[in-house]
Design brief:
This protein has about 375 residues and is of the alpha/beta class. It folds into three domains: about 45 residues, Roll (Membrane-bound Lytic Murein Transglycosylase D, Chain A); about 250 residues, Glycosidases (TIM Barrel); about 50 residues, Chitinase A, domain 3 (Roll). It is built from twelve helices and 18 strands. The strands form four sheets. It has an eight-stranded parallel β-barrel with strand order 3-4-6-9-10-11-12-18, surrounded by four helices. α7 links the parallel β9 and β10. The longest helix is centred in the middle third of the chain and has 18 residues. The N and C termini lie close together (about 10 Å).
């Protein structure tokens, strides 16, 4: 690997770092998307790459990422060199079994992906009114005729649009539909596999068979693993909009999910989810009242620099964070940087799984893609 992650120390300047590493200031600024090229903050992690070099840290891992059709083309293009798979979010379906396309036409994404040798995947979700609807799932998995109607329309769409396969992302599945949901995934794969299409399933993070909670009780890792080509572990959202400040994807928690998943699903089918975002919480946190703001990883660093905040790094969670004050309000921010991404990639390699996938590609994170590509 030919990249270096440098953690800024007190008193460091870009000019001094550039002189020591023989990497031009302009390149460091560009690669790390620094808003103010004249300022750094203590604890900030910089990806350092020489001219003409990329990190190559993706290696033999399969790298994927979700994106909506309204993504800025320039943001998507930044990610392309690192990707093997582009998951287009998303198609829905009605209670009658009619497929519902995304509000914006996604054909340009499919074409752009293939031009770069990247496989575009159609993402199927039970969306209704902008939210996951488990009653839609219930009607689908309990009614073979509606299933057949959805599968037939999926097949036509995949063929006509030029997709490489389907990713099924059903959340809040009812416990009583657990086995039927897995059987539906298998039915989709039975239809698509003979034509060379891949079928993957995205699942909420679990650490045991009998874990309670509305996100996990309807998800059977073993059955879904048997009925799909790949399983995407949504290993994020420990820190979330309405919860207390903490890492979005703490490595110790992610490891627990991965270790459980490996008891149920072959390693060669597993994809580890990575968040491309963080959260900014007003503090002190008050349960039921506090709401965090979603923030991009590049935006987080620039916010720390602007406010002169020292960036800390939590060793157990393997995640950066900082505090700052603005307009009389204290804030706590947790996000991802090259160090935390490297830790997750190392975890994927440690357990020999197939790859990693990002939710999502909508926010710029050039250093991440350069490190992988």
């Amino acid at each position: 690997m030919i990249f270096l992650i440098y953690v800024v120390e007190k008193g460091d300047t870009l000019e001094e770092i550039a002189q020591r590493t023989q990497i031009p200031v302009e390149k460091i600024v560009y690669d790390n998307q620094l808003e103010d090229g004249n300022r750094l903050t203590e604890g900030q992690a910089l990806l350092l790459l020489r001219e003409g070099e990329t990190g190559g840290y993706g290696g033999d891992l399969r790298i994927g990422g979700y994106a909506y059709p309204f993504i800025e083309p320039s943001v998507l293009e930044q990610a392309f060199p690192a990707l093997n798979e582009l998951l287009v979010f998303s198609y829905g379906f009605t209670f009658e079994g009619d497929l519902v396309p995304p509000p914006q036409d996604e054909q340009w994404m499919i074409n752009a992906a293939w031009q770069q040798g990247i496989e575009p995947m159609l993402v199927l979700t039970p969306f209704s009114g902008g939210a996951f609807n488990n009653q839609l799932v219930k009607v689908l998995v309990e009614n073979p005729e509606i299933q057949q109607k959805v599968i037939d329309q999926l097949y036509v769409t995949v063929r006509e649009k030029g997709y490489a396969g389907i990713d099924i992302d059903f959340e809040y599945v009812l416990p009583g539909n657990k086995e039927q949901y897995a059987a539906f995934a298998g039915r989709v794969r039975d239809r698509f596999s003979p034509y060379g299409y891949r079928v993957s399933v995205a699942v909420a993070p679990k650490t045991s068979d009998n874990q309670m909670g509305i996100l996990v009780e309807g998800i059977d890792y073993r059955l879904l693993g048997e009925n799909a080509d790949a399983i995407f572990l949504m290993t994020y959202e420990w820190g979330y909009t309405y919860g207390p400040p903490m890492a979005v994807a703490p490595l110790d928690k992610v490891r627990q999910v991965l270790e459980y998943a490996l008891t149920q699903i072959p390693a060669e089918k597993l994809i580890l989810g990575i968040p491309n975002y963080g959260y900014d919480w007003p503090v002190p946190y008050e349960r039921g009242l506090t709401r965090a703001r979603t923030i991009g990883n590049v935006e987080a660093v620039n916010l720390a620099v602007k406010n002169g905040a020292e960036i800390q790094y939590a060793q157990i969670a393997q995640s950066p964070w900082f505090t700052y004050a603005s307009a009389g309000m204290n804030h706590e921010v947790w996000f991802e940087d090259p160090r935390s991404i490297e830790a997750k990639l190392n975890l994927a390699r440690e357990y020999g799984i197939a790859g990693v996938g990002y939710w999502n590609l909508m926010r710029p994170f050039r250093a991440n893609w350069l490190m992988l590509g």
